[in-house]
Structure formats: structure tokens, C-alpha cells
Amino acid sequence: MALVLYHGEPNGPSLTVLAALFETGHDAELRPIDLTMAERHSDGLPHNVETQMSIEGEGPVLVADGEPMADSVFLACYLNDTAENSPIAPTDAFARWEMMTWCRQIIERAAPAAAYLGVKAHLSDKLSSLSEAVFQKKMAPIKSEDLKARWNDIREGDFDDEKISDSKAKIKAAVEMVEAKLRDGRDWLLGEFSIADLETYAWLAGMGDIEPTAFEGAMRTEDWLNRIKARPSVSRALSLAKTPAPQQVWAPGPEINRWG
């Protein structure tokens, strides 16, 4: 099976998929792209409806035998299920349901919140410095009108106070969810290390500087974050960073209409 992974800096969904790739032992050609400059939509990448209309926003694209796929949790599951064993997802049906239920909480609540706060803190000024002509050229290939509108809002610095407040609350809730799971002394969220750990870490690791109050007193979560960071797969993914602080590199995340 020939794999090509187009990925951004090791943060958010790109971190999940890079670490999943290394956890599962697959060989893949790695092609870094700048998600903060909408390079995922360039002619150099293969496209289909799934990648163009991805609910994840600006995430990595995995091409398997010529077929492009998107969305980090599903890509991690694909890598797990095509590996020689199942290193990052349980084979038991109930345990698999539990993992996917957890991941859905993260991708539908924590991920939009993290991306919203992340682009406000680290992408808005970068986009506003572009000329109108350059910016519009980067936006032209984007097929999703919703995603294109979010890019424009970020460039204009148009951030809704209610969504900012809601995002902060969702990050705090995600930390509380992690803290509660770890209360019994386990090392990993669902007992065995899984995609749930990778996906949760990928969205929360960059929130410490942006929303530090969410982590106050969450010592179990801090220890868990350090354990994840120390895993060889995550350490290897982080070593691929092109910038000194990849946790500060954010692109538009899951679509705005997933709030609630």
C-alpha cells in the first residue's frame, strides 16, 4: 500500500495523524504543507469531495493508493485497521464504541473551540498582513463556502464574543473530562493507549498558553500531557516541526455550525 501524507505543523489534526502513522508502523511519504496559507487547496494535492468539504476544516490529507482521505480520527482509524495489529484502537466492540464516543466529544466540542481560540491568537494578524490580491488568490480554490467565510472572518479579526466565551468554557470542560478519567490512577484515558489519547492531546496541547486558567489545578492532566509528549511517536512527530513553536500554529478548524 502506497501512502502519502500531506500535513501541517505537528499540532491539532496533523499531530494526531503523524503520531498515528508512527504508532502503527506504516511507511509513508511525508509532504509538509502550510495549512495556515490554505495550501491544502492547491493544485499540488489530490482532491475529492471528501477532502474539499471536510468537516475538520484545514487538516491533513492522507492518500492511500491514490485515494485522498481527510479527518484525523478517521485517518487514525484507517492507519490502525490497515496495520499488522491494532496498536491504537481496541478490537472489542464496546471498547471501540467508547473510544469513538470520546473522540466525537473532542472533535465536535473541544476541536472547534481550540481552533477558534488558536486562530484568534496566532493566525489573524498573519492573514491581515497579506495584500487583498494575495489573500484572494489563496482563497479562490476553496470549494466550501462556509470554510472560505471563516478564512475571511479570521483575516478581518471578526471574532464573536459569545463564541470566544463558549470556546473557553469548552476547553475547560475538556480538561475536566480528562481529569475525571485519570482520577483512578490510570495512565491513559480509556485504559489502554488509543486514538482518544492522541486526538485529545493534539487539540489541548496548544491551549496551555492561550487558555491557562482551564488547566489550573489539573495536575493529572498535566502529567498525562507530559506522558503523551514523551511517547516516541509524538516526539518524532514534533521533531518534524518547521517552526520553533508548532503548538502556536493554527488553521481554521471544524465548521462553525457544529457549535452547541
Commentary on this structure:
This protein has one domain: Up-down Bundle (Glutathione S-transferase Yfyf (Class Pi), Chain A, domain 2). The protein is 51% helix and 7% strand. It is built from 11 helices and 4 strands; from the N terminus they run E-H-E-H-E-E-H-H-H-H-H-H-H-H-H. The protein has helices at 12-24, 49-52, 72-81, 93-122, 124-128, 132-139, 145-156, 161-181, 195-204, 219-230, 232-238; strands at residues 3-7, 29-32, 61-64, 67-70. The protein has a 4-stranded mixed beta sheet with strand order 2-1-3-4, covered by helices on one side. The mean pLDDT is 95.
Task: Write a brief structural summary.
Residues 1-87 form the GST N-terminal domain. It contains 11 helices and 4 strands; from the N terminus they run βαβαββααααααααα.
